[in-house]
Design a protein that fits this description.
mainly alpha
Length: 120
């Protein structure tokens, strides 16, 4: 038996054709794009795996052999400070307290005092 023979009403047939079209209307406007193809070229400034392994080896050696016990967070902050210190005399790593102090000194606003210093 033909399934469409049961449909006596022309509107029912148009309803059936609109259902698949309405499903298409709800599809995303842009299909997801494939990730860019992996290139075999290595950027000139990329850090090699050997250099990363060397950093980890030094990190572990300092942690294990330093005269005083040192935690990973302190050691990592020291490594970051050293990285920036070696760039130029104007670059520095600031922790949250140091950053807040610098921002207060630079902006002229001081939290907790209810005043602001403005140059006129």
């Amino acid at each position: 038996m033909n399934p469409f023979s049961l449909l006596k009403h022309a509107g029912a047939l148009s309803c059936l054709t609109l259902l698949p079209l309405s499903a298409l209307a709800q599809a995303p406007a842009a299909a997801p794009t494939a990730p860019p193809a992996a290139t075999t070229e290595k950027p000139q400034d990329a850090v090699s795996l050997d250099e990363i392994k060397r950093f980890v080896a030094v990190f572990r050696a300092v942690k294990a052999g330093y005269v005083d016990p040192i935690d990973d967070k302190t050691l990592m902050r020291a490594a970051i400070r050293g990285l920036l210190l070696d760039l130029d005399p104007h670059s520095a790593y600031l922790d949250a307290d140091q950053s807040q102090a610098l921002n207060e000194a630079a902006s002229g606003a001081y939290d907790g005092l209810g005043l602001e210093v403005v140059q006129q």
